[in-house]
Every structure is written in structure tokens, then in C-alpha cells.
Amino acid sequence: MSDIMPNGYSPTADWTDDEWSKLSVWLKGVLLHGTAVVTFTKVDGTERVMTCTLKPELLPAVVIKEATDKPARKESTTSIRVYDTEISEWRSFVTKSIKNISFSL
Description:
Elements: H1 17-33, E1 35-41, E2 47-53, E3 79-84, E4 89-94, E5 98-103
Antiparallel strand pairs: 1-2, 1-5, 2-3, 3-4
């Protein structure tokens, strides 16, 4: 896996856990700066194509609540939580289920 992934890069099933982890970190970085189209296999086996982002300017306004006694949500190491820009809702997908990623800069 290269350090910089070209547009339309497709992961392969024989990747190591370390390579999947690097993909997750890289994809989160891309999503913080714009949108990407991610094709992945859902848990039920169907394929999904989702345009998503983590760019703050594209996320919905959030009501800030006072701090509570609830513990902070632990970030998953196997899935990515993103904002689906087409349906305007938060969704997530398992990193190892990604089939293709495309984006424009």
C-alpha cells in the first residue's frame, strides 16, 4: 500500500491488519478535508455506494450539551463513522468491507 492513494484506489482482501489500519487513518484524513465516494459491502452482504464526509463545514449543527457523567465514546478501530451527504444522516461501515474509494481534490 502506498503512502498516497490514487483516486479510485481499491483495497484487496489479502491486506494485513496494519494496512487496513493505515487505510482507516488515511481515509479519515481525506474526509476531514472534503467528500469521498466509498463503495463497501454492508453486513447483510449487499453493496452500498455512499458519498460521505467528516469536514466540519459540511456537518450538521450540533446542540452543545453540558458535560455529563457519561464516558466519552471510544473510537472504533474496525469501523468508520461518517456523515452521509446524500441522506444527511450519520452512518458507519466496517473498514475491511471497503471495495473502492474515489474522491476529487
